[in-house]
Structures are given as structure tokens and as C-alpha cells.
């Protein structure tokens, strides 16, 4: 069994909370309780949360034994080094802190599965193995807080909408606990793009309400109309229908499998050795609607974008392409995807989509291009496909009228992002309209 310390990489998950944000955290938290008998801090680090707040006793749990309490702490502060999930204590007035943010890919599978099984037994909710580590900590906090306790955590705002966190939301809703989420209007951690929040679950208040707010770095708050910040509801998630979206290909690593025009020439590859591909729509003007050959050459080939996908998916391969693959050092192809294949370079080629869409955007909605050159979608560019005949131009024009910004949750800073299953919901609605009118 994996030890707690190797369950996830400590260094990558450790982000110290700025002192001023700790102050904002406590000012908001103490609006729900003026004083706490016992406080448990997850991922306590140097116990900086213990320097604020009013409590009779503070206990911090920190997995990294090299992290020691800072100076000037009250005598009522103690810290235990170890894994919070192995700590036997419970019944706290409040569970607080800034728990580790680790993506599910970076969690040790055996450790993750063991914790998920345990939480499933204790909560009755089947834990989604694709949720990130902080979701496990929110579950744990709810279990360790006493029956009328408070959970107040600095966590990514995305948990209010992500499908992987739905079991957590269902657990809270089943118990009718009151929820307030304060979304930060600006980044609070250096080098961390994800939108942060102070998320509060009040087990004493059983009104079942979920309320959303925004908060600035100086602690100024304002009520939001909904989780999206607008008066409109969030886009639903849906399964694929006759029109459907699919993530961009992940052939292994773009540095090897996708080339710029200069890299293609330097490698001695001909156009017969590559396929046109799109890895980003970020620098394209919003009013561009159709990826024609001249647009592809001007906007992608001439600008040095990664726009050529090597044709290593099938034989025969030219001696030129074979020589290129042989020249790739093992270090450049040391990825899980490449290592999991019999032939590291033999990826599965997806069909070219009818529309190309960048899933991330900053205002109104994502950029959408008619794919007239049959380019392949790679990475963050997703593709739209159809099992029925339709006008891609009409669908593109329809998507361009939707204000997606009002119907998705902020992902990071000013970046918004639409998920594949949310696209499917939009496409199913469009398909239903076409069937009624047809």
C-alpha cells in the first residue's frame, strides 16, 4: 500500500496562503460563528491560519514533516505531522484550511482508490475517481466537523459545477446544509491560474440553500445572481446525440507529433508525411469564420504555429518520416501515452471535424471555424461532428449567437472554459430545433 507521503508529490501541491488572504478568510468565516471551541486545519503548513481567528484550541495536520509552525503562535496551537485521512480525531467546531490541490492524474491509483472506497462507505456517495484531491478533503472535513459544525476551505471555485464533484454536492444537498461560496475576483496565489474561492458549508443551518458571492483581495464582497455570476443558469451536461463534440487528439506530446513549418522543413519531411492540424485558435480574430487554404497558410504556416501532424498512425511510412522518428530522443517521448502503446508513435487518428472550436475563451464565447481544409483537432481545440447531414455554416452561425460567458463558471482569471458534455447539451438543443423545423 502506498504511504500517504508518496500518494501525491508534496512539492507540487504546496502553495502557501498569503497573509492578507488568511485575514480575509477569517473575517468571512467568523460571520458564521464568532468563536470556535476546536479548529482543525488541513494542510496546515507553518500554521499561519492559527495566527488569526478566535478559537479555544487549534489543531493542524501537515503531511510534510519539514513544515514547522511559525513563531508567535498561541499555546493552544498544536500540529500533528501525518496524513489527514489516517487521523482518528473528529467532532471539531470548524474544519478549515487550504488543502492540497492535486489533479486526479497525479494521485497514486492505489491510494486514491482506497480513500474513495472508504469515503463512499462513510457518505453513501460513490466517489468519482476523476475528482481532484481537494474534493476528497472537502468530504473529509464534512465528516470530521461535528453535527452542527462549520467547514470553511480555500478551494478552487470549479467544484460548484464540475461533474467529478457532483457526489460531493449531492452529499451536501442530501443533508440540506447551507452553502456559501465566495469567488475571488482576482488571482490570490502566484503562478496558480485556477479561480479560488472561500467555500463554506454550515452544518448547523439546514435550509438547503446555495448562495454565491464574489470577494476581492481586500475582503469586499458582493452577492452573485448565480454560480455563473449572471442571471442565467449554467449550461447543462449531456451525452452525445446526432451532433456531438469530441476533445482534440492527444497523440503523445505536441513537441514530437505536431510540427511548425520550420520544423517540418528542418526534419526533411514532405507534405506527404504530415496532415494539417490545429492546436490553438487563440490568436485568430473573432470575425474569422472559415478555415480556408489561404487562411491556414497565412495564420498558421507563416506564423510558425504547430500546424502539421506527422502521419505516424499507420504504414507505409516514408524513409524520411522513419528517420525523423528514429531521431527523437527517449526523453522527448517519455509520456504515459507513448509508453502505453506497443509502438510509441502509433497513435489513433480521429476523423477531421466539421467545426473547430477553442474550448477556452475570455469573453462571450469560444471561437468557431468551419473546417474547410479538413484539419485535425489537437489538444485544447475540440471538434464538432455529425451523424446526419447538416449545414456547418448554419451551425457555426447559431453557436456564434450564444453568450456562453453568462452560462459557464469562471475557470481561471478571466478565462472561461466550456466542457465537452456542455457542448453536447447545446448541440442536442440545436438538433431538436432542426427536427421541429424540418
The figure for the number of domains is 2
What share of the residues does DSSP label as strand, in percent? 15-25%
- Beta strands, count: 20
Q: Into which percent range does the helicity of residues fall?
A: 25-40%
- Assign the structural class, choosing from mainly alpha, mainly beta, alpha/beta, alpha+beta, or little secondary structure: alpha/beta
Rg from alpha-carbon coordinates: 25 Å
- Mean pLDDT across all residues, rounded? 90
Q: Runs with pLDDT <50, length 5+?
A: none
CATH architecture classification of the largest domain: 3-Layer(aba) Sandwich
* Major beta sheet summary: 9 strands, mixed
Distance between the termini: 59 Å
- Top-tier CATH class of the largest domain: Alpha Beta
Full CATH superfamily name of the largest domain? Vaccinia Virus protein VP39
Shape field: globular
What is the count of DSSP helices, taking H or I runs of 4+ residues? 12
Order of strands, main sheet, comes to 3-2-1-4-5-7-6-8-9
CATH topology of the largest domain: Rossmann fold
How would the blueprint of this fold be written?
Layout: H1 10-13, H2 19-29, E1 36-42, E2 55-62, E3 77-81, E4 92-97, H3 109-123, H4 133-144, E5 145-156, H5 166-174, E6 178-184, E7 196-202, E8 210-215, E9 221-224, E10 243-246, H6 254-257, E11 258-259, H7 261-266, E12 274-278, H8 293-301, E13 308-310, H9 319-327, H10 336-339, E14 355-358, E15 360-361, E16 368-370, E17 376-377, E18 381-386, H11 392-400, E19 410-412, E20 415-417, H12 420-437
Helix pairs in contact: 3-4
